[in-house]
Each structure stands twice: as structure tokens, then as C-alpha cells.
Amino acid sequence: MRISELKQKEVINAEDCKRLGFVGDVDFDMKNGCMVAIIVPGPGCFCGFLGREKEFIIPFKDICQVGDDIILVDVKKKDVEASCKL
After folding, report:
1. d(CA 4, CA 9)
2. How far apart are CA 53 and CA 44, in angstroms?
3. For residues 74 and 62, what is the distance between their CA atoms, to the nearest angstrom?
4. Model confidence at 52, in pLDDT bands (50, 70, 90)?
5. Helix (H, G, I), strand (E, B) or coil at 35
6. How far does CA 62 lie from the centroid of its chain?
7. What whole-number distance in Å separates Cα of residue 41 and Cα of residue 68?
8. Quick one: CA torsion of 9, 11, 65, 78, rounded to 10 degrees?
């Protein structure tokens, strides 16, 4: 699967069935070439005019399943809040 294909998939949290958004970027470990995490841009500020508030960094271990249209992740609410950058 290509990164461009991942960017077309929506990320859904299985914990509370909420949409987190679409994959914006992927974090790789350059030493071993493995994917470490997916990065999902958070909601926009003031109707999207002033950029984004935060981004969700979801470790690869928390990805449950990658389907045709969605990526199902299992992260606890406190983990999602902790992984957000301000």
C-alpha cells in the first residue's frame, strides 16, 4: 500500500466510534524502514481560516484494521488527548 492510498482513508476510533479525520502524514523509522505512526490533522481553528489546533499522532500498534475506506484504531480518550500537539 502506498502513502497516497493511506491519505485517502478516514481514521475512526473504535473506543468511542468518533471520526478523527483523514491521514495527513506517516512517521517512519529510517533505520529499519518501518512505519512508526500515522498523523491525523486535528480540527481547524475558526472555520479553518487560522490553521489547525493540533494533530493526532497514532502509534502503529494502535491500528486495528485497515479497510478499503477507513482505518480503525483503538486509542483511549486520554491517549488521544495526550498525543495531540498544541
Report:
1. 9
2. 6
3. 5
4. low
5. strand
6. 10
7. 20
8. 160
| pTM for the predicted model, two decimal places | 0.75
C-alpha cell of residue 81: 488527548
At residue 4, the pLDDT reads 87
Q: What are the cell numbers at 24?
A: 495527513
What's the rounded Cα separation, in Å, for the pair 17 and 25?
22
Alpha-carbon distance of 62 to 2, in angstroms, equals 19
What is the CATH T-level fold of the domain 3-83, as seen in this structure? SH3 type barrels. (2.30.30)
The side-by-side arrangement of strands in the sheet containing 63-66 is: 18-22, 10-13, 70-73, 63-66
**Residue 20 contacts residue 28 (beta carbons within 8 Å):** no
d(Cα 23, Cα 58) in Å, to the nearest integer?
10
